[in-house]
Known about the structure:
The chain is an all-alpha fold.
Amino acid sequence: MLSRLSSRSFIEGLVLPAVGIVIFLLVWQFSANRIDTSLGQFPGPVQVWEQIQNLGTEHARERDKEAAFYQRQDERNAKKLAKDPDATIKIRQYTGKPTFIDQIVTSLVTVAAGFIIANMIAIPLGIVCGLSASMYKAMNPIIQIFKPVSPLAWLPLVTMVVSATYVAEDPMLEKSFLNSAITVALCCLWPTLINTTVGVASIDKDLVNVSRVMALSPMVHVRKIVVPAAIPMIFTGLRLSLATGWMVLIAAEMLAQNPGLGKFVWDEFQNGSSNSLGRIMVAVLAIGLIGFLLDRLMLTLQKKVSWDKNAVLR
């Protein structure tokens, strides 16, 4: 019996996904061989793998240049201090071209910042809207109006507001980072807000009655009853929010030319070299893979904090 279950789980967990991937790669290669564009033939899996290797090599080369730059700077400053201990030395940051991996890191940091900002507002507000029907009725028109607004509509407004209000001689954060993070926050606010509101409003009445009988204070009621009961819906909102934020970020970076994966895709499109399509395809796969991993991360986190360890999560 155990061996049967193990065999079935092996087939469902590994064999079937592997078969699906192999079929996808064959269809992809077959189709790519028949598509010619102005930049050459559409890249198949083999060409994309070559570009993955090239991008890895470029990243290693750029890191070597960076290490050599800091070594030269340190040696120069050491000589200067050896001649004059009171001399003023200059420490400059390396300003080489960001590599594909650097752009991935930039996009991840930006989406994390936007996601955190959005949910610091959405979760408390969703709890209040779920507990208070009056508050929900007051907020609902605003939610319904702004929820469908595209990030491309928000971006020019955010850019102008940040340019007008964030003025500093030595800014701690780049304006491009703020533009992207705030745009992401504005777009991934709504899924968490709506799901948290629904989750809190749908709490079992028996749990609410228990709280009343025990005369729990409002804060203890929220902490002990409301949040644990609404966790599944809150996490559904967080997962949707993170997926939305990731998609929005790539579009925002492409449109505003802010650093990140979106800019990498746009730069390669503008570059128009014979390798550009292959590099864009690498970025497309990376965007999809990272989106999948972010969702798995949220699912793992939900399993950790959920009170119902036997719940089936997908």
